[in-house]
Amino acid sequence: MEIKVVKKALAAGEAVAGEIREKLAENGVYMVNFMGSPGSGKTAVVERLLESGLGGLRTAVVEGDIATTADAERLARFDIPIVQVNTEPFGGDCHMPPNLLASGLEDFDLSALDLVVVENVGNLVCPAEFDIGENLKVVVISVAEGEDKPLKYPLMFRESGLCVVTKTDLVGALDFELGRLRENISRVNGTISIIETSARTGTGIDELEGFLISRTGETIT
Amino acid sequence: MEIKVVKKALAAGEAVAGEIREKLAENGVYMVNFMGSPGSGKTAVVERLLESGLGGLRTAVVEGDIATTADAERLARFDIPIVQVNTEPFGGDCHMPPNLLASGLEDFDLSALDLVVVENVGNLVCPAEFDIGENLKVVVISVAEGEDKPLKYPLMFRESGLCVVTKTDLVGALDFELGRLRENISRVNGTISIIETSARTGTGIDELEGFLISRTGETIT
Q1: Read out DSSP for A7-66?
Q2: Where would you tag: which of A31, A118, A162, A216 has the fewest CB atoms within 10 A of its CB?
């Protein structure tokens, strides 16, 4: 399949996130924004979710990166609409800008979709500051990053409704305690959901799939 | 020891990085800017370097974080000047702003120092965009982040003179090839030095220590 790369310069629109939200609602589409550090495992989580089938939800993916189409290529084996958004031509933006996302979404027939998965640019800081019109913000953090990150980068955890902990198969090779991470997450955000996963072993993917199916269902029914 | 936290609002100064550079040069001080993702292992590398003794170089550390004094506390056991710079009161800046750094440096007697180590805010994107008056930019990347990161976040690798690869003790537990990472780094920056390290086993710390001693020596003699 062909992977479309959005590189056209677009005028910044202040209310673009609001327009995106409206358009999604009109079409009964739920949008999830996956955020997290480079290498936290966002793409691997999306891959496993697509493999899981997501209960038949008609899904499309927007891959955000500063450069390369590597992530979109990883997902090309799934027969779903995928758009790669590169921020490099725009100064290497450290987050998914709403206007680029809007341009990416134009490539989809929203009326034929239930769920849009956005993988943001790898960054545990800046993407949390930008509303992109999503229904759910998800922070992805790998156990290799350490238990202290919620305290050091609190905004990302405060803004998110779900935290996906990744690479839990590595816990044995690390000085890492999942309990302490959970505690630190809760100190920053008392209502966030937490799902522990391993893309390698498949642990927790069912739970994550169920979570997204349920949330999407609440919106589209 | 007491850890000083810089939280005073400061007027933005456009040429602040230049002023920092000038002041360091006047005092024969070399400054290294460690950058990298949250959890890439920046603090652990700094810890091991301080343990190594750095050939007797009189060293001070500026710890950058959005929130918490956790990193400065980790280094408090070393009898050296340490300042923690928190960007949260300034909107959670995703990088070390030169004006906050300048304010932090005021806490040091530069005439009594050879080396200032700055640990930037955890972020593989934004810190690369800001000159803070340093002599050397160092990008820190852990093997847990994946081999593709130099291609996806090229600016950080292009701007840096040294890449410290961390957590190499985990390679066996990962689907990771150091050779492929080196190749991707070289594709983005053909002249960058690369040092492979493990803070846990101590691998590569001698080499990194030697590198910094040599660079500092070139400046202060």
Answers
A1: -------TTHHHHHHHHHHHTT-EEEEEEE-TTSSHHHHHHHHHHHTGGG--EEEEEEES
A2: A162
Domain count, chain A: 1
ipTM > 0.90, yes or no: no
Q: Which domain holds residue B87?
A: 2-220
Inter-chain residue contact A39 with B38, CB threshold 8 Å: no
CB-CB under 8 Å, B125 with A121: yes
> What CATH number is attached to the domain comprising B19?
3.40.50.300
pLDDT, tens digit (0-9, with 9 covering 90-100), for B20-38: 999 999 999 999 999 999 9
Which residues of chain B are within 8 Å of residue A121 when distances are taken between CB atoms?
125
- CB proximity B146 to A under 8 Å: yes
Q: What is the pLDDT of residue B13?
A: 41
CB atoms within 10 A of CB A22: 12
What is the tens place of the pLDDT at every residue in B44-81?
Answer: 999 999 999 999 999 999 999 998 999 999 999 999 99
Residue B148 has its nearest CB partner, among A70, A149, A170, at A70
Nearest to B38 among A129, A153, A155 (CB): A153
